[in-house]
Input
Amino acid sequence: MGKVLMKGNEVIAEAAVHVGCKYFFGYPITPQSELVAYMARRLPGVGGIFLQAESEIAAINMVYGAASTGVRVMTSSSSPGFSLKQEGISYLVGAELPAVICNIVRGGPGLGNIQPAQSDYFQVTKGGGHGDYNIPVLAPASLQEIVELTEDAFDIADRYRTPVILMGDGMLGQMMEPVEFKERSEREKPEKAWATTGTRGDGGPRIITSLELDAEGLEKRNWSLQQKFALIKENEVRYESYQTEDADYIMVAFGTVARITMNAINKARKNGIKVGLIRPISLWPFPEKPFIETRDQVKAYISVEMSAGQMIEDVRLAVNGHAPVDFYGRTGGVVPTQEEIYEKIITIAGGVSV
Amino acid sequence: MGKVLMKGNEVIAEAAVHVGCKYFFGYPITPQSELVAYMARRLPGVGGIFLQAESEIAAINMVYGAASTGVRVMTSSSSPGFSLKQEGISYLVGAELPAVICNIVRGGPGLGNIQPAQSDYFQVTKGGGHGDYNIPVLAPASLQEIVELTEDAFDIADRYRTPVILMGDGMLGQMMEPVEFKERSEREKPEKAWATTGTRGDGGPRIITSLELDAEGLEKRNWSLQQKFALIKENEVRYESYQTEDADYIMVAFGTVARITMNAINKARKNGIKVGLIRPISLWPFPEKPFIETRDQVKAYISVEMSAGQMIEDVRLAVNGHAPVDFYGRTGGVVPTQEEIYEKIITIAGGVSV
Amino acid sequence: MGKVLMKGNEVIAEAAVHVGCKYFFGYPITPQSELVAYMARRLPGVGGIFLQAESEIAAINMVYGAASTGVRVMTSSSSPGFSLKQEGISYLVGAELPAVICNIVRGGPGLGNIQPAQSDYFQVTKGGGHGDYNIPVLAPASLQEIVELTEDAFDIADRYRTPVILMGDGMLGQMMEPVEFKERSEREKPEKAWATTGTRGDGGPRIITSLELDAEGLEKRNWSLQQKFALIKENEVRYESYQTEDADYIMVAFGTVARITMNAINKARKNGIKVGLIRPISLWPFPEKPFIETRDQVKAYISVEMSAGQMIEDVRLAVNGHAPVDFYGRTGGVVPTQEEIYEKIITIAGGVSV
Amino acid sequence: MGKVLMKGNEVIAEAAVHVGCKYFFGYPITPQSELVAYMARRLPGVGGIFLQAESEIAAINMVYGAASTGVRVMTSSSSPGFSLKQEGISYLVGAELPAVICNIVRGGPGLGNIQPAQSDYFQVTKGGGHGDYNIPVLAPASLQEIVELTEDAFDIADRYRTPVILMGDGMLGQMMEPVEFKERSEREKPEKAWATTGTRGDGGPRIITSLELDAEGLEKRNWSLQQKFALIKENEVRYESYQTEDADYIMVAFGTVARITMNAINKARKNGIKVGLIRPISLWPFPEKPFIETRDQVKAYISVEMSAGQMIEDVRLAVNGHAPVDFYGRTGGVVPTQEEIYEKIITIAGGVSV
Output
């Protein structure tokens, strides 16, 4: 259908529909309400169901119900609303249900404000909910990448029977860029023999649950989950490396911050500073390989975040003491400028800002 | 009043009352319901208020309300119920309200079961809620320590205007031990000039909120929060070191698991293996010092957890590549035995189990 | 489609669909759950929406929302659930919204039981909700009559912009009889120029509300409502008279009780007692005419109810002192038998039971 | 304590406290919020509990819980909020629980407005909830009468194990008059041997419920309720007759409307028109006696209401065709003036207004 000019939030919605998501349960919250509104208009036309739930908690539990029947289903929220979904997310993991959950992060903690932020990094990557679990988290940096990652998110969800989180920030949700919804060769869709689609004399009732009262039984399920997480770590790591081969300094940034950082890097390169970028695309599993490959050659890594320093922990774990890890961040909805980041590079490199 | 034989959950409740907590809002969930029940009986007698809320979400928001008036207030739950409180917890942080929140962890994820676990480690230490924040987390290993840490929790909460989490597991909540509620010289209680106790012509309304629509303003608040977190990291780290001076191997464990591990260590020592223990008492701030002091001398650290491997990340961050970090864990409500841990020590030490 | 054997609850549902009702919001409660279940299966197939709401209160407010857009919409409940809808029903009246609400009455008060009853007569006819209002109430006595009255209910709702209540009892809901859904010449459907279907530059927003802060304004609306009620009283009275022409005694009964009473009358007639029946079909407006026509000739009226005596007030108001009004009733889910009613006739008639 | 100048809503609250009501559960709604606010301040001081519930439905169910323990308890609302309580009220009746429920009526139906009205007459007297039941309803006309009737309401509730409704209008709730809370010789308080105050080996658990699955059993309970209602009708009828002995015309009015009507009557008397007043104080049981005593002598009754004509039905039932019954009403929050009512008298009396 060629290129279309759309808002980020709408691109997520349309990409979901494009890969067969017909069910959406959500509750409006700035800065992601366009996604909800788009689904409200769009889904009836494809024979789907949009339902504005009575709360975020209701929405995530409706996702649980719909996912149990094997359909592709999505919900979406922003930081405070995403916190309300933590119990439900843990249930999705425990019951091994595929679903895509979108968090368009805003300034926090608490009510905070409605400006862009990345300060839910820990919440999405370390498990905001209870129990041992990991969830694949994808963080697009452009609207065209939103298309690809949203579509992939559904494939990953189905393939591994897991919720998948799409993490963006308010800036990404609100910006407009031309995007294209291409024909795609989908990953092979696994048959959902586990789905509760009604018994028809075909082998008794199927049960979807996260309850397992017996400790040995629950441990067995947990190690089975851990094996799945290991498999995802093996197969689903995504990142982009930019000018890291000869880099003295490597910036680490994701999402829209990575775009700004890349501009700062280009400027620094013009001024003779050898600086590169590692852009994690999957926040979990976190890309360790590009760090292992570079950590004995670089002088320092700098984690650039729209938070007070969260991803830096994953960077430090990946670097494991082989090099210093520095930090530059803005919080509360302030977006770092190219200039600021360039200044940070200059400072670290011991150079002089021009 | 001398020693009394009590259940862990009840000890938490009585210790809270002992330091002046008269307000409790909660919702029952196994394995912490005795705490709720104890408060229901106890608080009316001290002129306090116990209220069983209509949900965990209501309870945490009632805590927000009560804390805003400057009184000492508590809530309590177990893993799934604790997940439901994540939004509210982030609000408490954002509004800088003192409160004590108890999580008696059970097997997860999802409904899981009602057996003991530590698998909410990430949730309590890395921020289960949204936004940049940290919360002091105290993890007692005995009932007498529950008394001390519960009482300290309220002092820390007041001193720094922050929620404090008490993290236990179902075993600790259910076990009975004799405890004593001693007279204590409290830390100096700060005056709560910020509390919304009604205007009486004394300077206009006081406002408790986590809302700050202006990005610059919210960032300012966030850096101020970060300074507070830094101060807590400086002042409130707690841990116990056991036979680490000459240790070749150091086990790391907290809560009830630390008690079991200590027994395994004793047995290993008897068999000539030089093994020690670092027991984090504050999970956040995580005690880095005992690792820094030992990391260049030991052959390995072993994180022993009732989870699939969560605290190990904090151990690795503290060790920072100076030594290998190994792991032994049980999940889903299975409690590791002394024997298992001893076997693990033997295996790591390359020795032969007897 | 010829005759089909169906359950009463299902007949209501199918009849609603037959006249274009595509939207149903409800919450299950015995003895009307088959209606909800039928709609859940049926509506998706006609491009409609079935939603099981989180409560009866949510359901009636969803009806308010849907009705505001001009579509035909229905909800259904049984006594306790119907009580929960009283605020919403008053709002529908105040905002002049067409909708059909079904009450399959069970034994009360309180939880009561799930047996058939008519003891919500006052609630449906005198206004269970607040404010001055009346609602047309239709009470079918057979499954074929359910078809006709359900279909008419939607026409009446649209014609007068008013909620309409279908009142049945558990027996009627559960019984099976062959029914036919005939082609029908609908009443002229009024155009819904008031419906909030979105502004398209066609004259500004339409507002649906029951709020009118100004007392004079609200009184004006109220007298306008009263005029509408007067019009309904003029046009929509329905009843059946059976052997009343020469009757010395007239039984008054509605719904399934009327069927049983008719059998008792037939038996009494065989034994020479001149007894007839007035069967109100519309409970509001209550049929006064057949009473006015007979009240100076009969020796007594006997109101036969599955309640402790509620309709008897409307009978007394219609008779207005011209003749004695007696009562026979069973409550709490007990259905009066033909024999009991026959005995009552004998007693009143001063005769001797055979 | 002598005379105090208070607002009507506050008088209700203070009178309740005066007779030992220590428990109040409510939700604010204009025009009765002062009652809620007064209780919030007042009850802690008498060792009671005030709780602002999360909704009207929660409040009435909390009343159910508190009443089950035998304490004196109250809730309060205004029209829309009162509608929300209908299920709970029916449960109180079914479980035979004493409680006082206040409805300060405002203009309806629906949201209506916050002006005074009496249009919930049917709702309170005919049973807004489901099932066969009656509830004593007291309608004071002055603030001093509020004191007496509120205090009596608790006595009646305890004596008959029944909820009692206090019905006022917004004008009565908002007006200020001096009142006195006198020492009173209470009716003998029945012992509450049925209250669920905990088992102490004194004869097994007590059960409070409105559930009775067996139809015969529920019918038995219902007739027992009906006997109680008959007893209340015998003992608890209250009314005031004013100049009815020689009256050609009798006005019927309650609450504040009765006060205004009395002034109009005085003026009519001065102009030689023989007119009197029957003021029902108990709306249920409705006072039939003063009508039976006068109905063969008067030329007409005129029901004067702040509604579109509701009490008139009870007047007609009491008059039973012996005399014409006319009506004068204002609705939607409009309060009839003395002049209007006087004009109505003149018109009816065929006289000439001066």
About this structure: Chain B has two domains: 4-235, 242-349. The first helix of chain B runs from residue 8 to 18. The longest strand of chain B covers residues 99-105.
